[in-house]
Amino acid sequence: xxxxxxxxxxxxxxxxxxxxAAQEQSVNGAVEAKPVRKGEPYNFSRxxxxxxxxxxxxxxxxxxxARNLTHNLGAWLRTQFDVTLVSAEQLMYSEFTExxxxxxxxxxxxxxxxxxMGAVQLDLTMAQPIVDLLLxxxxxxxxxREPTDIEDAILFSVMEIILRELNQAWLPVGLKFSLD
Length: 180
Fold this sequence. Notes:
Layout: H1 7-28, H2 52-77, H3 93-99, E1 105-112, E2 116-122, H4 124-134, H5 149-170, E3 176-179
Antiparallel strand pairs: 1-2, 1-3
Helix pairs in contact: 2-5
């Protein structure tokens, strides 16, 4: 059989408990000083927001990623290649997907140990010169279109290099990226 407390019964229980604690303090003769906690109002609209210190740390890791990609992709392509971190910002996934141009080359990546999915996007305006270089050309840009099967295989190799460098840069944090 379940017992339900009325509002007044619950309030009287808490009042009795606080009276009992006050009596114990007066019997002991010594009043212990308890630390007073000051409350801060919580802003629910900032839930999940990255602090400025965290954003600086993320930018530092991504700067390392950009330097490593500059050297490794440049060596793989056998040409001068420059990767620069322009900005770091926090976006909702829907905002990120709205910014992806059509057509685009997007791969999904698993982030462990967080067990979440992420997206890595390669601008297709870069794809044509990369494919041209790897096939013996001078890196000429072509028309913007969906990649062919051969171009897709080459771009997948580029994504593997990018994820390898992501893993190297984020290793101290304990984050591991893998193509899904």
